[in-house]
Amino acid sequence: MGCYQCGREIAGVGYRATPVCDFCFLEDIINRQFCRCLGCRKPLPARSSARLRCRSCGTLTVQSSVLRHRHPNIQLDQKEKVMFELMEGSMFDSGCEALVCPVNTEGVMGAGLALKFKQLYPGYFWDYHDWCENRHATLGECHVWVNASSNPKHIISFPTKAHWANPSEQRWVDSGLDSLVKMIDYMDIKSIAVPALGCGLGGLSWGTIYPLIHQKLGRYKNVEVKVYPPRGN
Predict the structure, then answer these.
(1) Disulfide: which of 70, 89, 120, 137 matches 105 by Cβ 3.0-4.6 Å?
(2) What is the 3-state secondary structure (H, E, C) of the chain?
């Protein structure tokens, strides 16, 4: 007997009125709890599939990633895997081989997400500090630190502003994403976690920055891109 939603073979339906596999049954329960688009926060249909795309902003829902987090023994088929996802939680728990850190070009990490990077990876901070002190830091150009000890293997400095007290600018995020794409291709990075670039202390709008991230990084078929919206969005 096959599941009426996905066609997977199932042994029986038990107490369920319709033939549905455990994957679709659990996904339906979870989707009833998480039924808002993480891109624009507009309501989604309560009964959504693993690849439902928001009609308003085009974002793929992350119901499948929520399902894998809560039920690690349940995995999507390879052909169903979503490579570009909006996530909830901490990017430091993403498991990605590369993390992106939004920075200034002054060598200062005194607040926000950058401070968290400094506290967790002091070796990365000094590499970033030297990069700025030697006047190599340039807006629109990313810099990578290779972690020899463990994951993440790479931390990528992404300048969104010159001075730490200044606001970020969209043009620097735009050109920085082009630099990031070149770095992903050159270093053959297979998974990367990206925060809301310039949208925290930088003051940029997530509604403006998210389409840029999706346009530049949503094209990959063999790189897992996990994007973390600002808290409260």
Answers:
(1) 137
(2) CECCCCCCECCCCCCCCCCCCHHHHHHHHHHHHCCECCCCCCECCCCCCCCCECCCCCCECCHHHHHHHHCCCCCCCHHHCCCEEECCCCHHHCCCCEEEEEEECCCCCCCHHHHHHHHHCHHHHHHHHHHHHCCCCCCCCCEEEECCCCCCCEEEEEEEECCCCCCCCHHHHHHHHHHHHHHHHHHCCCEEEECCCCCCCCCCCHHHHHHHHHHHHCCCCCCEEEECCCCCC
Domains of the chain: 22-82 (no CATH), 91-227 (3.40.220.10)
pLDDT for 118 equals 95
Q: Which residues are catalytic?
A: 161
191 φ, ψ to 5°?
-150, 140
Show the low-confidence residues of the chain (pLDDT under 70): 1-82, 232-233
The radius of gyration of the chain's CA atoms, rounded to the nearest angstrom, is 20
pLDDT tens for 90-145 read 999 999 999 999 999 999 999 999 999 999 999 999 999 999 988 778 999 999 99
Q: What is the pLDDT of residue 157?
A: 96
Tokens encoding 97: 């081989």
Query: What is the per-residue pLDDT for 63?
Result: 43
